[in-house]
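Reviewer 2 asked us to include a model.

Predict the structure of this chain.
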Amino acid sequence: MTPDPSTPVLFEGCFGWLHPAGGRRGVVLCAPYGSEALATHRAWRRFAESLAAAGLPVLRFDHSGTGDSVGEEDDPARLEAWLGGIRAAVTHLRTVTGVEEVALVGLRLGALLAAAAARAAGADALVLLAPFPSGRIFLQELRAVALLAERPADAPPAVGPEGIDSAGFRLTPETAEALRALDLARMTEAPARRVLILDRPEGRAAALAERFRALGADVEEAPFPDHARLITSVQHAAFDCSAFARAAVWLAQGMAPAKPGRTVEAPSPRLRLPGAVERPLRFGPGAGLFGILCEPATVAVTGSPAVLLLNSGATPHSGTGRMSVRLARRLAARGIASLRMDLGGLGDSASKPGRRDGLIYCRDMVEDAQAGLDALAAAGHGAAVAVGLCAGAAVALHVALADPRAVGLALVNPGRFVLGDGVTQEEAIGSAVKPTAAYLPRLTEPAVWRAILRQDRKASRVARGLSERAARRLRIGAGRLRAGLTGRGYARDDVLHAFQALSERGVRTLMVHSAGDVTLGELEAQAGTDGGRLRRMGGLWMERLAGADHSLMERAARERFADLLDDLLDRIGTGATGTVRGKGPGPPEGTGALRVNHATGNSPA
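Predicted model (structure tokens):
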């Protein structure tokens, strides 16, 4: 992995990254809101890197109550905290780099906030990327998206007296009311001398540009053609955004010659929270992996294992709806340490050589997760419970097979149990097949057969998935028969055998599925209807979450899972950090138990 010159920083309770450069003009990046911040995280990081490469020092950061920063989304005075955070970011950038000019760059809601804070922050230039002209328009769009999103049957309404719940994030009525008063068209002074507006095709920023011109600003406009592709999926964080390239050229125009870079603050700052202390870590090969170590503010529970929190699909380490951050801080209050980390090619970790960013279900991620265990061990936490949702669950399973320091597992909605060369999130979703019983009633419908015969894409995918599932059962069954006769020969993807090996080693496993989730089809394929064979296995118990979607975006589902994780840690108890049975990746060959290859994370056939 290529070393990253950026430095984690803290200021006024906000966590951020400083991307150093020698230029006299600096840039503060103001991120979008909620799921858009998750989807654009990798592209936003690459944008910062490109600006720094052009000679512009850059500070990107998490707004208060978001990402790794202090606070919660339902704290009071969120809007003032967000605007104050932007002002503090500008001050911090000037202080640590000595830049003479600062430009604010905001995306979506971040653009509205940047424009609102620009004059008070003393910004010299302003870039607005697909901006919301007013808080009222932002709220209209957020409300529409929340109402149109598919929700579990038992989930509460997306819009109600507690606010707007969208993709795991909640905007409270107080914050909504404060945002409603923001309207850039009512500004009486230009937000900055120079303004660049790059708007989406259906945007409403043309009138905003005219307003700023009337107030004396030098305004340029250009289209933002790849806006929809950028914000709709975490996977697209890996592609180059033409609007970002256009903004970089504009920001560098007329820049004074670079000066020697100023030494910035020491790395590994500490964020002190009620009940917890957090510090960023770089670890792994070339220090290319990134995570946040969250430890109890007081004495930790003696003998309790730490918790390794892995990416949920391709989502950054903060988690969907900030779930990993909340889990980590809750655990610290209980006296339990945790590391929430980004696997290679995701979030804030470096790219993996020879592999594009944004892929999931990659076998080399097992080595990354083991590096996370190394980082925990270096901090004094020798045993850990690995926690993963979706693709992160598969990585958690395989790191437990490969490393005896993993003494427990919490697996949520695992879409697959095997790892390979990696797939995109879209490909993983597209290949998912529900339990067979979900399709049987429809096989009596003539329209379904007509769709299959005309090779309708969805019908063909389901039919292919069901036939592949049947073939896999036969192959795995043959492997078990062969192993029963010879003591070896299990299929590589014999998941029951893998869990049996973990059970014999004393690993305790919690497996959680959302009621009706598509991943129950994979469970059925591996262990029978409703996971019956796994349910009879020692050291493993299974739970269903009602009113929960795949990514646990509903607050009640996240809280229920947090309670289940507490139960798992209690079951493991103080014996977890003592002698761990097994000294390698698995029992010796010929015992009938699974043996795992360190290099691949797979078991030989």
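DSSP finds 19 helices and 22 strands in the chain. Confidence is low (pLDDT under 50) at residues 576-605. We have added this to the supplementary material.
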